[in-house]
UniProtKB/TrEMBL annotation:
The keyword DNA-binding applies. It comes from Cryobacterium melibiosiphilum. Gene3D superfamilies: Winged helix-like DNA-binding domain superfamily/Winged helix DNA-binding domain. GO terms for molecular function: DNA binding; DNA-binding transcription factor activity. This is MarR family transcriptional regulator. GO terms for biological process: response to stress. Keywords: DNA-binding, Transcription, Transcription regulation. Residues 1-124 form the HTH marR-type domain. InterPro entries: HTH_MarR-typ, MarR/SlyA-like, WH-like_DNA-bd_sf, WH_DNA-bd_sf.
Length: 144
């Protein structure tokens, strides 16, 4: 129930981004992490390369990111956020933070902080179990 409620509220919070939640995740990753390529971003977020291409095409059209030649490899393209992309992410991060506060609103401050910490540790554990798998595959690998 919590996951479904969170997903619904998050989808509403990122309404207007081309590609919705996936766009938000990619834009956040581009801005907050120094990943060398489109492929690395896709691997980090467990997004299929063909889906990633279409997603980035929409983000380029919306002037959120641009593909620039990688100075270390002329054949490769690096994905960088535009000034518009940075401003848009800041607005949407505030909206997503409000969703997270709303979801945790039924808990008192210390309980909400503890749940956030526990979920973060659990997510890290799942990711370590299989860092290249989709989230569902990573969870399944914990049972093996």
């Amino acid at each position: 129930m919590v996951l479904r409620g969170y997903q619904r509220l998050q989808e509403d919070a990122v309404d207007g981004l081309p590609g919705g939640v996936r766009c938000y995740q990619v834009l956040s990753t581009v801005i907050h992490h120094e990943l060398p390529s489109q492929q690395a971003i896709g691997a980090h977020l467990a997004i299929d390369r063909t889906v990633m291409t279409y997603l980035l095409d929409g983000m380029v059209t919306a002037t959120l990111v641009e593909r620039v030649p990688d100075p270390a490899d002329r054949r490769a393209r690096k994905i960088v956020a535009t000034a518009e992309g940075v401003a848009v992410l800041a607005r949407y991060e505030a909206r997503v933070a409000a969703v997270e506060q709303a979801i945790l609103g039924g808990l008192e401050g210390a309980d909400a902080a503890q749940l956030g910490s526990l979920l973060g540790r659990l997510a890290s554990s799942v990711h370590r179990a299989d860092p290249t798998a989709s989230p569902c595959e990573a969870v399944e690998s914990l049972d093996r």
